[in-house]
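Subgroup meeting minutes
Present: P.N., E.W., G.H.
Scribe: E.W.

1. P.N. recapped why we're keeping a running log of single-chain structure predictions: easier to compare across weeks, and new members can see raw inputs and outputs side by side.
2. G.H. added today's entry (137 aa).
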Amino acid sequence: MTDLTTTADAPLATSTVKVLLYSDDRNVRETVRMAVGSTVSGATIEWTETATHDGTIIAVDANRYDLLILDGEAAKSGGMGLCRQIKHEIYDAPKMLLLVGRPGDAWLATWSEADAAVSHPLDPEAVREAVAETLAA
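Output recorded in log:
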């Protein structure tokens, strides 16, 4: 979501993007948040974190997010199935970035209908770049 205010000199862009980050592992959530930071492509990030399948569904039902980052390696309910569920159940679903176990699992991101994927171990530069590219698409 971007608000543009035009002045006589030039447009002034101010924006906030809402990102939901799902992982049952707080270390993964912290790694992603630290990699991405508080801004991306000039926009301030408003983070929401969830650690359970049900908590994620409740948050997505109650709020409009610009991006969901889902951990495909989460225990009990991985981000791959959650991604596919949201794509099929939520009209105009937000963009989704899937964290997969290894580069060879990228095909699962396709099955999940994710917009992008990054593999573990999480490279901070790759995560930040994937977030920026997914939001820009």
